[in-house]
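Q: Predict the assembly, please.
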Amino acid sequence: MRVSGRKEGGETRVDPWSQAWERAAAGAVAVVDCGERIPCNPCEEACTRGAIEVGEDICAPPRFDPGLCDGCGRCVAMCPGMAVFLLDRSVGNGRARVTVPYEMGEEMRAGREVWAMDGEGKPLGKARVVGAKKRGGRAGTTLVTVEVDEGWALKVRGVRDRLITLEAPLEAEAEPLKEYPLCRCEEVSGPRVGEVAAEFASLRSLRRFSRVGLGYCQGRFCQDMLRERLARAREMEEGEVGTFRVRPPVRPVKLGKLGGEDA
Amino acid sequence: MGDKENPGGRVGRHPVLDKFTGGREVVIFVDGEPLSAREGEPVAAALYAAGRRVTRYARHTGEPRGPFCMIGLCAECCMTVDGVSNVRTCRIPVREGMRVDTPERSSG
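A: Predicted assembly structure:
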């Protein structure tokens, strides 16, 4: 079958996803699904076999070499973003076992029926838990192994307790709010921003006009929402509408403190 | 209020964080009224556990506001602590005898 792998810019080496898929025929192998440029490397630390490498630039997405992986699952438990899973196709018969981290309260044990969820939190289908073990790393992370159809083995990113999903709809139908604060400090509502956003070509000019982002939090809370809103109103890319100028200090500090006052 | 997993309305057993072990029980004063709290927990957590949801009132509209982001960004939980105004109560640990007051309402 065709494996939907990741293209790595211009590199000719074998796609690690295809490699993992082949190798998983003989037993569990880790698959790292991390494309985030964030300063994070516990996966590299967790691997005792050097199969995962972040390298000098700590923001670089990890490179993984399925050829070196022995499927121990340490990286699965360690990744704070839950971006690593184990794939095992050795069961055959068109079935595959996928091991994902689970950090909710319900106890997971073999035999339990759960929903297998994809990376966007949508249920792929029912799956049976064939193994669950507490693993090191952070407190409370359980490695849950489910058996699923081989066809969606690469899509499973998590499991969800089946009872909970059946009793409550996944997403409640919400009516759009008529009035809600967007800039909480200066009390500028979402609809108000919507009314005026299209008049301004940059986040800074929107701020000067409407006072959004000028309050106590200085835009720490609302800036991303404002940028998204403004970009949508102007039909621009989010990068094009700019940012508030970032001024030190990073945290709120009383002026008195800067002036040398104690306490 | 609360049970073994949620002592006094607090999250006792969190799936990821360490177990809540408590902290000494101390008394703080909220708008002059004594309130039992755990030493070291965020002031906002003590208020929340006591059932208090409103920390301040919006300057212009006068709407009640309460802790929202719980991580020190949104400034909704700001109160006057020991006479210092605009203190984010979600970021300030409880100390014995501390005074926490609702900021004065202003007409903006």
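Residues 16-167 of chain A form one domain. The two ends of chain A are 66 Å apart (CA to CA).
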